[in-house]
Design a protein that fits this description.
By secondary structure, the protein is α+β, with helices and mostly antiparallel strands. Helices cover about 45% and strands about 35% of the residues.
Length: about 150
């Protein structure tokens, strides 16, 4: 009987340790995503659209939903950004405010937030919903709905 109790206690301790490690990994994963977003913000504010795009999945399957409708593909999204923000004045200074992060799967997160673009002539703002996936060991945005 003592042997069985010992086995149960060892099992419970192991399960608790695994759960703690899993929780730590989740925090690390969302922290990594937020770090990528911070790098995007910095790249934008430096006028570096290609650096900003590092946070996106470089694939024809990347989906962007904005005021003009759907766009597909990394290059198309970059081209749209270049067209809409042709110079530093048009780009202004970007600030992301993350409102919510939700893990939706082993390798996916939804991030919901607000974006604000401070420019000399005006200030624009809206919200975003980003679907992040871990692809080839890298967290990238696979779907962006910004309005």
């Amino acid at each position: 009987m003592k042997k069985q109790i010992s086995i149960v206690i060892i099992f419970l301790i192991t399960a608790c340790l695994m759960a703690c490690q899993s929780t730590k990994m989740l925090k690390d994963e969302s922290h990594t995503i937020l770090s990528v977003m911070k790098k995007q913000e910095t790249a934008w504010n430096e006028g570096n659209l290609e650096g900003f795009m590092d946070g996106y999945w470089e694939s024809e399957s990347l989906t962007f939903v904005g005021k003009s409708g759907l766009s597909y593909g990394w290059q198309k999204v970059l081209d749209n950004y270049k067209k809409g923000y042709p110079d530093r004045d048009a780009m202004g200074r970007l600030k992301f405010d993350v409102l919510k992060t939700d893990r939706t799967g082993a390798d996916s997160y939804f991030v919901i937030g607000k974006w604000t673009l401070f420019r000399t002539v005006d200030t624009l703002a809206g919200h975003y919903t980003l679907l992040w996936k871990k692809i080839d060991g890298k967290w990238v945005i696979v779907t962006d709905h910004s309005s």
